[in-house]
Design brief:
This protein has 154 residues and is mostly helical. The protein contains six helices and three strands. Strand 2 and strand 3 (44-46) form a beta hairpin. The radius of gyration is 23 Å and the shape is flat. The mean pLDDT is 88.
Length: 154
């Protein structure tokens, strides 16, 4: 049994609406991609550059995950993900395993719902953590105060 995502439903506008009501069409396209139908050609999709860039980033992540899956199958997934994402080597071994598990789970969910933003945020959060660790954050011993510090109300 193959599970497929439901077909994408897009709001449709005619190309004449674009010329007559450009402001309203552009405002709608900022909210969601619009399909612009034309009499003299194939339909076009009108969207924001930000959304288009996100789509490109998601395709890149998908390509990297597929590449990691096809690497040496004897290696655990977290070790295969070091190839496309070398920064995960900054994470602890347990966090590398957690990253591998979570990024695949979030990718599957994001792809099935056609909601790529969550995947992009998840990957960026893990990368931010690796950057913080590489910069030395969290490696210093925490100083515990023996007496509470009293501050005035602002």
């Amino acid at each position: 049994m193959t599970l497929t995502a439901p077909p994408r439903a897009r709001r449709t506008v005619q190309s004449s609406d674009l010329s007559r009501h450009a402001r309203a069409v552009f405002a709608a396209a900022e909210q969601e991609p619009l399909e612009v139908t034309r009499r003299d050609g194939k339909p076009l999709v009108l969207t924001t550059k930000e959304r288009s860039d996100e789509d490109d980033a998601v395709l890149e992540i998908a390509a990297q995950l597929i590449a990691a899956v096809t690497l040496d199958e004897h290696l655990p997934m977290h070790e295969r993900l070091v190839v496309p994402y070398p920064w995960i080597a900054m994470l602890s071994r347990d966090d590398q395993k957690r990253f591998a598990r979570e990024i695949v789970e979030v990718a599957r969910g994001s792809f099935s719902l056609r909601q790529p933003r969550r995947l992009l945020l998840e990957l960026q959060a893990w990368r931010n953590s690796a950057e913080a660790i590489a910069a030395g954050w969290g490696s210093a011993e925490q100083e515990v105060l023996s007496d509470p510090v009293v501050v005035e109300k602002p």
